[in-house]
Amino acid sequence: MSYHEAFWLVTGTAAPVIALAAVVALPDASAFSDTAWQLTMRVPTYEPSSEQGKLKFEDIVPEWQRLLLSLISQVGSFGNVVLQAALLAVSLSALATGRDLIPVWLPIVAAVTGILLLTLTALTGLSIRRAERVARRKEMSSRPPGHG
Questions:
Q1: How far apart are CA 146 and CA 68, in angstroms?
Q2: Which one, of 80, 54, 56, 65, lies nearest residue 32 by Cα?
Q3: What's the CA dihedral at 42, 43, 44, 48 to 10 degrees?
Q4: What own/partner pairs with CB < 8 Å and gap ≥ 24 does 48-56 have?
Q5: Residue-by-residue DSSP string for 13-68
Q6: Is the pLDDT of residue 49 over 50?
Q7: CA torsion sign, 142 to 144 to 147 to 148?
Q8: Are the C-beta atoms of 135 and 43 separated by less than 8 Å?
Q9: In Å, what is the CA distance from 13 to each residue of 20, 80, 89, 105?
Q10: DSSP summary character for residue 2
Q11: Can you spell out the DSSP letters for 92-104?
């Protein structure tokens, strides 16, 4: 098996870019639990005795789904950074030693996994923003006329 210098240059370049994207996406990954807390704590009611006016995040996204998405996106984001750091280390080591240290299919799997984890985090962020929009609409529709 021959040495793949150009391949290791590309993987060594791609890994930090994917890791940077994962770091930029971390606020979206952790925002799910923050948003859930904020929306649960918000009580947009104008009749203190009425339970109708209370808006809970669970009304928009079921708790099990919120927890699952939050866990997957946070673990996925942190795991992605670690995965890309390992890919960078292997790439730099291969370039330094002048030989393939691992089979070339492993870095391909690592890079594709990183992109898939980024996609998952982005989709989670979109679902957070959608839930926030739904919550705002429900809040606005629950207000009596003249209070909006």
A1: 39
A2: 65
A3: -160
A4: 52/142, 53/142, 55/135, 55/138, 55/139, 55/142
A5: HHHHHHHHHHHHHHHHHHHHHHHHHHHHH----SSTT-STT---GGGTS-HHHHHH
A6: no
A7: positive
A8: no
A9: 12, 15, 11, 17
A10: -
A11: HHHHHHTS-SS-T
Encoded tokens for 27: 């606020």
User: What are the tokens at 83?
Assistant: 């995965």
CB 117, CB 80: distance < 8 Å: yes
Q: Tell me the angle at which helices 105-142 and 5-41 cross, rounded to the nearest 10 degrees.
A: 20
pLDDT digits (tens, 9 = 90+) for 24-48: 877 665 655 555 545 444 444 434 4
8 Å CB contact between 108 and 9: no
Per-residue confidence band for 89, with pLDDT thresholds at 50, 70 and 90: very high
**HSE-up of 44 (CA within 13 Å, CB side)?**
17
Question: pLDDT at position 123, please?
Answer: 79
Contacts of 84 (CB under 8 A, 6+ apart): 15, 16, 18, 19, 22, 110, 114
Residue type present at position 134: V
